[in-house]
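Lab meeting tomorrow. Look over both lines:
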Amino acid sequence: MATRNRIISDVELRLTRSHPTDDLQLTRVQISHWVDLARDEFVADYLESRMKKGRGADPYYIEREQCLVVAGEDPACETDCYDRYFTTITENVLSLGTNDDGMIRVTTSDGLRIEKVNRFELDIIRDMEFSKPSSDNPVFYREGKKIFIIGVSGFKLTTFKIHAYYVETMEGHSTITDTTDPYSANGRHVKAITKLAVQIGLEQMGLKELEDNINEGVQE
């Protein structure tokens, strides 16, 4: 499995034509940032293409968090009454499609699937006769790392747990440059991500015209 450290080194060698130099003033954090941009761009294009073909998300890229605790909140309420319920996931979600498609699935610990909705359509859904959120038909929407769940007021928060499945973005990880842990990319995609990271680096350095002259085959 390729590590972040290995991919950064590969990109650096390609950008410097296998002769690292201080002239370009490239830091590993900078290259790590380009690698993460490339990974997210590649994975987004790859997964959106799969989804359009009805194949669903590649399981390799799906993060799984189980038995997440649900809390209640109501800024206007000072006691134990809650206006809405939420849980919090660990990582940020990759932006996919037009309907938060990076958030793959949310279920209760009992296996009940919680359907995803557009939060701007909640008022419309609440007025529907048969589709309104309820304990039998809970729905959710996401804001950042918070998953808000509607229709669960009848559940006991002490026993109500959530499973969340989503595609993680590499946003915010670029300062980690020396880890030997496997990088979050399918091994079959590392070569393409490396090439894309080189392209992004050249563009941001104003050296796009050198792209065709970058050496191939460095540490494949």
In short: The beta strands are 62-69, 71-73, 84-88, 103-108, 113-116, 139-143, 146-150, 161-167. The mean pLDDT is 85. The CA atoms of residues 60 and 186 lie 7 Å apart. Residues 4-56+173-213 form one domain.
